[in-house]
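Recall that a protein's primary structure is simply its ordered list of amino acids. Everything else, from secondary elements to tertiary packing, is in principle encoded there. The following example makes that idea concrete.
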Amino acid sequence: NPIVEAKHIRLVIPALSADRRKQLATHVKKLGEEQKVAIRNIRRDANKHADALKNQPGKHFPEDEIETLHEEIQKLLKRYEDDVDKRVDEKTKEITTV
């Protein structure tokens, strides 16, 4: 029940149970996987655009430049997937510690 004290309202929120902590940790991992899938979809689209550069009329892009572009896209994917993993681990630790 809320408690009104002068200009403040106090709410008593009970501590999380072990089961609820597990549920939240699982939810965080699920959200992390969804974000990694979204990042991979962006990579797929970026690779399609890079491949489309080969067939662009009137312009010529060397194969090695397109391959370098694919490598840079892959590096970005890895960087952001690692960032998502790091944040999921941090949040999971935050949730599971009492």
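Strands lie at 3-5, 8-10. The first strand starts at residue 3 and ends at 5.
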